[in-house]
Amino acid sequence: MFSDALRTLVYDRRGHGESAALPGMRSVAWEADELGELLVAADHFPAHVLGISYGAAVALSLAVRRPELIRSLIVHEPPLVAWPPVEENPEVRSARTQLDAFAKRARTENSDVAAREFAEQFVTVPGGFDRWPTATQEAFRTGARTWPDELGALERADLDPGLLGGIDLPVLLTHGEVSPPYLGRIARSVVESMPNVTLRSLPGAGHFPHVTHPALFGGTVLAFALERDVPVH
Asked: What is the pLDDT of residues 56-91, one digit of tens each?
């Protein structure tokens, strides 16, 4: 959908797809710096930067660190479980505890068990994993080995309302109506901290709308981008 209207760059973060993992502690800021380097190397800036879940946290960090590389920012449910305004909220605190317990189990579980558990506890509903496209299931299994480190990185994410309040860019933040409640609470709090942000709720969608509702999510993203004077290629 996007490539018909926009020059599109899709990449695999470290440890996902065809991108090998690197040893050492993962951090959201480090991954944002890598994304910035990629945009410069590909001469693909200023760009409309889209991030979902952990990728949304990376996109927000890039906007703080390298705003000159971004034309607009589109993020879906950044899972900032250590986000200061809501980290002590009972829903968020409970989810944080469950995610920490999962991260410890995931280091020893096989990838299929970890992928199913994570998907059905934190992303979809019981039985939802089996309804996903085969390619998405396989990507989840492959990415399972990185989740403990990524969950740890979210705990240390150097993002707070003061930093996001300085982002002078057009921002679209989307939220799935059937996503876990803690994600909605975080999303609404993040919106309150930013000066130029639009919040859109996606009917029937959850944490991965590009998988379950691609037409709805894609159309919402594309409309936002094209309204910001994007040249059509």
From this structure: 999 999 999 999 999 999 999 999 999 999 999 999
Q: What is the pTM of this model?
A: 0.92
47-52, strands of its sheet edge to edge: 47-52, 70-76, 171-176, 197-202
Domain containing residue 207 = 2-226
Using an 8 Å Cβ cutoff, are 26 and 154 in contact? no
15: nearest Cα among 44, 61, 54: 54
Q: What is the CATH number of the domain that holds 220?
A: 3.40.50.1820
**What domain count does the chain have?**
1
Tell me the C-alpha distance between 31 and 65, whole Å.
11
CB 165 within 8 A of CB 63: no
Helical pair 90-106 and 147-155, crossing angle rounded to 10 deg: 150
Read off the pLDDT of residues 10-59 as tens digits, 9 standing for 90 and up: 998 877 778 777 766 679 999 999 999 999 999 999 999 999 999 999 99
d(CA 173, CA 187): 7
* Dist. CA 173–CA 198, nearest whole Å: 6
Q: 39 φ, ψ to 5°?
A: -60, -40
Q: Which of 113, 127, 128, 136 is nearest to 52 (CA)?
A: 136
